[in-house]
């Protein structure tokens, strides 16, 4: 069973993922290209994966774990955390630990092996985002879980080990420290000014426009003021909402439009770079927050974390966000 261990100095939790040691990519170099006939995420290969927990697009008469789907969600075969068991929180002298209980799922974004997320239509990306929402709503019924992190690794440099377009979620028994720091910073701003800091940022970026990449009726896309890496880009709803899963499907369609355009611009500007995106939302057990605001952070994998970054927590970014945003604005997609 995996284990969660807490650093006693800074309060950071680490997953000791014993099950991941069985993953082939941990002991051999992953293939740059997996032929479609061998891909476990392709239609017709459903028996090569764990039983699905969600599927969209399949005709009502279609068999579970059969072809005909458009989006499919399955447990990760090599999970970082295990769904079975109790947390069993305990102390080991000065140290805190608990069992590595959680959920680790894969969202297969399309049945087409040749397409990545940016190549899908707005309607298809909407279905992917709706699958995110559906899984959060289901998993939050499990009282062991406090936070669900949704993320995507695209390209080998960003940590992807299979070519077929997919994203992942991990349900955690704790709120990640980085998210907690965002929540606390947003709360301090709200306590001082009685306004959401994300709403203030959206208003300023729409007014200033030097870091604005695009906007539609419901979402803005911009390069943040202090980006950690070149071409880091955020997708943020204009309306205040702390919980991603509270968004209706019609607004998710606008999010899909903004996210797809962002990925296409990054691909055209940078030559299909590897990237990660992370969805930050309000913790599952917290009430709707007037100070926190869900958002998606997209980070191309263009630089490497080295000694200075590990030692200081500082990030060195050679591209000013104003220049990155201007470059992306001028891209024709």
From TrEMBL:
Active site: 166
One GO term of the biological process aspect: galactose metabolic process
One Pfam family, short name: GalP_UDP_transf
Record SUPFAM superfamilies: HIT-like (SSF54197)
Co-factor remark: Binds 1 zinc ion per subunit.
InterPro entries recorded: ADP-glucose_phosphorylase, GalP_UDPtransf1, GalP_Utransf_N, HIT-like_sf
One MF annotation (Gene Ontology) recorded for this entry: zinc ion binding
Domain Galactose-1-phosphate uridyl transferase N-terminal span(s) in chain numbering: 4-175
Sequence positions that bind Zn(2+): 39, 42, 113, 164
Documented EC number(s): 2.7.7.12
Cofactor field: Zn(2+)
Sorted UniProt keywords: Carbohydrate metabolism, Metal-binding, Nucleotidyltransferase, Transferase, Zinc
UniProt KW Nucleotidyltransferase keyword: yes
Official protein name in the record: Galactose-1-phosphate uridylyltransferase
Gene that this sequence comes from: galT
